[in-house]
Amino acid sequence: MEEAKTLYTDTVSGHEGKGFITINGKNREAFELSKFSAEVELTVSEKRMLGHRFTQHKVTGAKGTGSMTMFHMNSEMLNYARKYLKTGGFTGFTMLVIQDDEGSTVGSQEVAYYGVVPAKLPGSYLDDSSDDGQTFDTDFTYDNFEVLKSFDTPANFGFVK
Q: Which helix (H) or strand (E) holds 72?
């Protein structure tokens, strides 16, 4: 049996995927999404216990953070901000992110992020120095997530799934 090594063909291309957004109960593909990254930041407490010279660590919580870049081509988020200013209610929205590279044997991963709250929402942009599509960047937080589908083990690893 050949040694199990990571094959470049099993890495997942950043171009291969989709995002979906749910705002006010309406689901749609986030076709204007250009870049998306979400992380789970662990809250770690540390304490040097009696009789130990080495500091020990314990995970005591977690926080969801991320960033995204979107093409500025709809007013949905601006209207969401306006609704908040009028009503005081901002519940966040849901993002479903699917990574799926047909050229990889690891299959796809689907993750839903709940309670997504962007730090900034797009207003209006004008720029006479660029012919490129306008984008906006924002960091965000989220309150919870669920892994709906996980990547598989690469085919050449030979592990039982």
A: none
